[in-house]
Amino acid sequence: MIVELLNSAIEWTIDYLRPEIHPLAKRVKDMGSAAVFLTYINAIVVWIVLLWPSNAVWRRLGDWLVSTG
User: Fold this and answer.
1) Residue 69: its pLDDT value, please?
2) According to the 3-state scheme, what is the secondary structure of 50-62?
3) Burial of 36 (0-12, 13-18, 19+ CB in 10 A)
4) How far apart are CA 28 and CA 11, in angstroms?
5) Do 36 and 11 touch, CB atoms closer than 8 A?
6) How far apart are alpha carbons 9 and 32 in whole angstroms?
7) Does residue 7 contact residue 35 with C-beta atoms inside 8 Å?
8) Catalytic residue among 1, 3, 4, 51
9) What is the C-alpha separation between 61 and 56, in angstroms, rounded?
10) Which of 3, 26, 51, 64 fits 39 for a cystine, CB–CB 3.0-4.6 Å?
């Protein structure tokens, strides 16, 4: 979500500074959009790794909580 806000700020600034169409402005906006896309992909991969049924992360966390409590 933070990356989306940064991308919106970059796009607004580019539109404010250069209202005419410029190839570099388009490239900057495309790179901001790519950063948002990669952030979403990263979030999905992290959730898949954490929620995968055979993943031992939750089991180890539970064992650790039981042993310390």
Assistant:
1) 64
2) HHCCCCCHHHHHH
3) middle
4) 8
5) no
6) 10
7) yes
8) 4
9) 8
10) 3
**pTM for the structure as a whole:** 0.67
d(CA 32, CA 36): 6
- CA distances 43 to 1, 2, 27, 65, 68, Å, are 11, 13, 24, 26, 30
Task: State both tokens at 35.
Answer: 């950063």
Specify the amino acid at residue 66: V
- 4 as an active site residue: the answer is yes
Task: Compute the average pLDDT of residues 13-24.
Answer: 87
Query: Alpha-carbon distance 34 to 4, whole Å?
Result: 10
Instruction: Return d(Cα 26, Cα 43) in angstroms, integer.
Output: 26
**Model confidence pLDDT, tens digit, residues 39-63:** 999 999 998 888 777 777 777 778 8
